[in-house]
Amino acid sequence: MEYLPICQKLAHQNASLNTEVKLKNSPEKLKLVLETVTFHLLSIMDGSTKSSAFFEKLRKHFDNEPTNLETDVEYFCMVTGTVPSQIHIPLGCFLLLSSQMKSNYSTEHLVKWIESIQAKSVIESYSYVHNLEEVPKFVLFDVMLRNPQFKEEFLLQKDIWLHNLKPFALQRGGQTFILKSIIDNLIYYGIMFESDTLAEILKTTLDFFQSSRTGVNVHLDDDFINELIWNTALYSFRYSDIKPSSIANIQELLVTYLSSVEKLSFKAYMGITLVVSKVSRERGEKLFHIAESKFINQKTTSKEMVAYYMTQLYLAKSPEDLVHIFNIAIKKYKLSSKLWLVFIRKLSLFGLLDEKRATKILKKMVSTNVNINSDIITELSKSVVDFTVLEAMIQMVGTEKARFFLTRYIQLMNLYDGRLSQIELPWDRKFDKSSAYKGFSSIADYTRYLCTLLPTTSIHQISLLLENEAKRNPQNTFQIYKKELLDKALSPNKKCLGVLLAVAYDYGDFEAWDRYRAPQVAIREFQRHVKTTKTGIEPNEWLWNKYIKLLSKYDYISELSKIMKWWDDLKFEPSKGLLLLLLSALPREFSERHIKHHEKLQSKRDWPWPSIEEFNAFTVNRDTMK
Q1: Which superkingdom does the taxonomy of this entry point to (predicted)?
Q2: Is residue 454 within 8 Å of residue 405, measured between CB atoms?
Q3: CA distances (Å), 234 to each of 188, 244, 309, 553, in order?
Q4: Which of 44, 106, 220, 463 is at a distance of 20 to 30 A from 554, taking alpha carbons?
Q5: Residues 3, 142: contact at Cβ < 8 Å?
């Protein structure tokens, strides 16, 4: 068995289970049987009858009964809610196997492993086992292959991985699939939560696995490294705020672990091209043509060709080029959802993805049986601001796919004040058609209900809750922030901080909690969580704008004066508009001195500094608008 949670998918399906028993006496082989035993135990607990045959066969390998079995069965059933008759033989097999392994694993240990595997989140899962003296690696593999929903969960996975490289490798050194899956998972969520940690993770991991002095034998071949180079680019393109230079550094590091530079694959070239093109379009195009000429006479797979067309779509210079390339690509790969996704994103970048076009694209995808995933629906629904349009799109897809629209539906709900339509959507409870809010007393209550339907509690869900509260009950926003994040030692994202700053700016100097005023808390949280050098939130123009406006409103001149150095440290390049906003918030003599200084150093201007005339015009216009 590779991954225990598949038992949840098998429980009520007619899938076949391998119930063969191969019991070998070496300690390492017995450890693998322990994983299989736990898997089949979970299957039985989840309602499957298929695993009983496995335990009937396993029982024949043992000559005796474990002592105090009835007591153990009673304890196990009390904690897990399992029926004793179902668990008697399986638990007996576990205890006999543990004895044969000469381990100290008890029923209490088994219960902890099961609670860990059944937990909903990374943090909860690890909390059940972190105090155990020895945790089977298959339980930690389950923790590592989960999808972290908060930065702290990703950082926990990072620490577990780096502290267990040797035992993980010893258990799975000859079967690298699960190790490769964990590395890829760390890259995906590292880019999402804390991209600056990835270089350390990859260097430590690959150095360890490639060293002849570590006592492990894990072969991560060139094909895998090439795939990571491509995936790093692909994952990073989901986020507009990630600095391409940081992703380029990760790719550069990965290239050094190829057996030779000549082993760089066509697909990896495309990945590097994508990232380089975000730094310099000219260099990206040049690298693309180098790759074309290098691989022109070599056989390429369909996956490589899809990557090739995806790169071409990203490099398209005009809408006409984009449509031309897409038509060629989709004719060859009709069912490629990846090509559709890039096409949609590029349309959006060209400013051409409106409600009408988004609806037309979705209709076309449905009619051609393309797999419509959550990323595609997220991109299409960004352009939709009309409830009737969104509801029509929801009705185009099946119930399972409809849930991908839920986030956008909640976002629109946070902007809406009127009576809701009577259309019954897949997530709605049965309601009286005369009800204004689908059976709820207010839009706020309906929106809170919708937030509970999101598949997991995540930082994204909390940001939606905060947006809803900021609209409906702004002075409660800070209490929700404290309850859902501060009290649980979890970090916010950009959206959460933006909501705090906006509420503090719009609704005045009210008490947030414990005699702290709203502006104080919003400013403190921004300063705690925004990156200063290596780790933290990478702020964008939108977030800086809200921060500067709040500081300016409450005359935090000292904090305003620190921002330019902060930008320097982060290598952040403000737009002229943002720079003008900051300069106009600072004392006039300070701002004019800076502007005049940079006018003298025109050849070294790193930011788009305004002239004195532009600065004066901006401040006059600002004062007029007050």
Answers
A1: Eukaryota
A2: no
A3: 9, 12, 13, 41
A4: 463
A5: yes
The number of helix segments (H) and strand segments (E) in the chain equals: 35, 2
Distance CA 46, CA 601 (A): 71
Q: Which two tokens stand for residue 419?
A: 């009576």
Calculate the dihedral angle through the C-alpha atoms of 542, 548, 550, 553, rounding to the nearest 10 degrees.
-140
Q: Quick count: other Cβ atoms within 10 Å of Cβ 13?
A: 9
Residues 410 and 394: their CA atoms lie apart, in Å, by 13
Using CA atoms, how far apart are residues 604 and 118, in angstroms rounded to an integer? 58
For 302-320, how does the pLDDT look when each residue is reduced to its tens digit (9 = 90+)? 999 999 999 999 999 999 9
**Verdict on whether the full-model pTM lies above 0.70:** yes
Residue closest to 446 by CA, chosen among 484, 480, 412: 412
Closest CA to 273 of 301, 258, 295, 292: 292
Count CA within 13 A, CB hemisphere, residue 357: 13
pLDDT digit string, tens, across residues 61-118:
887 778 789 999 999 999 999 888 889 999 999 998 888 888 889 999 999 999 999 9
Alpha carbon distance 65, 85 (integer Å): 16
Cβ atoms 557, 590 nearer than 8 A: no
Q: Which DSSP symbol is given to 195? A: G
Residue type, 430: K
Read off the pLDDT of residues 519-528 as tens digits, 9 standing for 90 and up: 999 999 999 9
Task: Measure the CA–CA gap between 381 and 398, rounded to whole angstroms.
Answer: 16
Tokens of 455: 């598949």
Pick from 502, 452, 447, 511: which is nearest to 479 by CA?
511
C-alpha to C-alpha distance for 471 and 153, rounded to whole angstroms:
29
Q: Cβ distance 191 to 242 under 8 Å?
A: yes
> For the segment 559-600, what is each residue's pLDDT rounded down to a tens digit?
999 999 999 999 899 999 999 999 999 999 999 898 888 777
Query: Which residues, in sequence order, are CB contacts of 7 under 8 Å at separation 6+?
Result: 39, 40, 42, 43, 46, 48
Could you please report the per-residue DSSP string of 475-531? GGHHHHHHHHTGGGT----HHHHHHHHHHHHHH-S-EEETTEEHHHHHHHHHHHHB-
How far apart are alpha carbons 185 and 181 in whole angstroms?
A: 6
Read off the DSSP letter of residue 602.
G
> What ranges in 4-106 are assigned the alpha helix state H?
6-10, 27-45, 52-59, 69-80, 84-100
